[in-house]
Amino acid sequence: MTIEQFEHIATGLRPQLLRVGYDFFGNNEKAEDVAQEVLMRLYVNLDDIEEDYILPMAIRMAKNYCVSEWRKEKRFVTLGSQEPQTDVVADASATISGQEKAERLDKAMKKLTPKEQHLIAMRYEEDRSIDSISESMNINPQSVSVMISRARKKLKSFWKKGERHER
């Protein structure tokens, strides 16, 4: 692909990349970072790109970049928030309780199908909208809503079964 072809295509790609970034982060500044990073990576690899595949490749690159940045932020916040605690016993108890809940939730999540796990993660961990999920998975928004609702019901059922076994 030539530089002129890329410049022409890039003007149409940019708004779509901004939307992916905004849907993921809900922040115009981060959306701008996503668009710039992906366009720069595409430009650097211009010789290896076929014009027919640039849009899906750019969208995939944007989503991967968003996830990567989100993980970096999450890791930084987790590592950076280690402050001395005043009530060690209460904090230890809360940590154990939180860990037990996290383990139960993890067990319940593993009982869902991979698609259900992915939908729940996109909706609640990545905090994505139904429309964003629908667009990225190429599924009708109403179907996405129904699938997420069913997955949540299954998750609740697995959670309750776990409670009964612990008593």
Written description of the protein model:
The N and C termini lie far apart (65 Å). 81% of the residues lie in helices and 0% in strands. It contains seven helices and no strands. The chain is elongated, with a radius of gyration of 21 Å. Helix 1 (3-25) packs across helix 3 (54-80) and helix 2 (28-44) crosses helix 3 (54-80). The chain has helices at residues 3-25, 28-44, 54-80, 88-110, 114-125, 130-137, 141-166. The protein has 167 residues and is mainly α. The longest helix has 27 residues, at 54-80.
Beta strand count:
0
Q: How many helix segments?
A: 7
Strand coverage percent? under 5%
Q: Please estimate the helix content.
A: over 70%
Element order: H for helix, E for strand: HHHHHHH
Contiguous runs where pLDDT drops below 50 for at least 5 residues: 80-95
Q: What best-fitting shape do the alpha-carbon axes yield?
A: elongated
Rounded to the nearest angstrom, the distance between the terminal CA atoms is 65 Å
From the helix content, strand content and strand pairing, which structural class follows? mainly alpha
The chain-level mean pLDDT equals 79
> What profile does the largest beta sheet have?
none
What is Rg? 21 Å
